[in-house]
Every structure is written in structure tokens, then in C-alpha cells.
Design a protein that fits this description.
Strand 6 and strand 7 form a beta hairpin. The protein folds into two domains: 63 residues, Ribosomal Protein L9, domain 1 (3-Layer(aba) Sandwich), CATH 3.40.5; 79 residues, Ribosomal protein L9, C-terminal domain (Ribosomal Protein L9, domain 2), CATH 3.10.430. The protein is built from three helices and seven strands, in the order E-E-H-E-H-E-H-E-E-E. A four-stranded mixed β-sheet has the order 4-7-6-5. A three-stranded antiparallel β-sheet has the order 2-1-3, covered by helices on one side. Helix content is 34%, strand content 26%.
Length: 149
């Protein structure tokens, strides 16, 4: 029997997948537990519509991510202010939260700090690089400069 999965089912498939299972498994477990619906012609049409909408959303999201990457890689580097001592060392260190705030203020995009990684520890004034991972293989490298306040 062919069914369309509504929820993620271990060892079977993900939502909106068309799978073939034994009749008893579908009738006694998947359908009553609302994990799947029978693959009738009307349900298949709804599935095709959902898949079209998902692909359009994914394409729009990819276009937006590419636009953000293009803006972030533009020449003016991010400038982060930090309090420094006389030797040029900063008090504390630069965190991903500070980089996320600088991107929001200087570039106009709100990026979650959890997507930002800094390759090396930032303890002195200078220019450094941070990586931003947008998921699905989309990532970029951002240059930022730490300046004294």
C-alpha cells in the first residue's frame, strides 16, 4: 500500500514522502497515529502542490541568502570597538554576539550569533576573519577589524 507521510517516521521516511508499506502497517499504525495518509488521487494532488510551494520557498530563500552573502562580502570591513589597554590588548575578547550586532548595525542584516564562528581568539587590535554558516552548504567569510575606543 502506498502512503504519504505526514510526520517523520524512523527507518521509513520524512514528511511529504510517498512510500510503499505493508497494508497492515499502514492501516493499523501509520494512519491511526496520524503519521501518514493513504495515497489517493486527491492526496497525491495535494502533495504535488505542497512540494511546488516548498521548492518556490527554497528558491526564494536561496536568493535571499545569496543577496546577504554578497552584501557581507562587500569591501567595507566591519568595525568593532573594544576597550584597550596601553599595549594594544583588549579587555576581554570579541565574541560572536558582538559580530552579530555589528552586522546588524553596519550592514542591516539580522544574523543569529549561533551561525557565526571565529577561527582564532581575538585578544588584540587588528583585522580578523569570521565564518558565517547559513546551512545547506551556504557559507561566507567576513572580515572584521577591532579598533580601540
Amino acid at each position: 500500500m502506498q502512503v504519504i507521510l505526514i510526520k517523520d517516521v524512523d527507518n521509513l521516511g520524512a514528511p511529504d514522502e510517498l512510500v510503499t508499506v505493508k497494508n497492515g502497517y499502514a492501516r493499523n499504525y501509520l494512519i491511526p497515529q496520524k503519521f501518514a495518509v493513504e495515497a489517493s488521487s486527491s492526496n497525491l494532488k495535494q502533495l504535488n502542490e505542497r512540494l511546488k510551494v516548498k521548492s518556490k520557498k527554497a528558491a526564494a530563500m536561496l536568493a535571499e541568502i545569496n543577496k546577504v552573502i554578497e552584501v557581507l562580502q562587500a569591501e567595507p570591513v566591519l568595525k568593532l570597538g573594544a576597550k584597550t589597554g596601553t599595549s594594544g590588548k583588549i579587555f576581554g575578547s570579541v565574541t560572536t554576539l558582538q559580530i552579530a550586532r555589528a552586522i546588524r548595525e553596519q550592514k542591516g542584516y539580522d544574523i543569529d550569533r549561533k551561525h557565526i564562528t571565529i577561527a582564532e581568539e581575538v585578544k588584540e587590535l587588528g583585522t580578523y576573519k569570521a565564518n558565517i554558516d547559513f546551512g545547506n552548504g551556504n557559507a561566507t567569510e567576513v572580515n572584521f577589524e577591532v579598533v580601540g575606543e
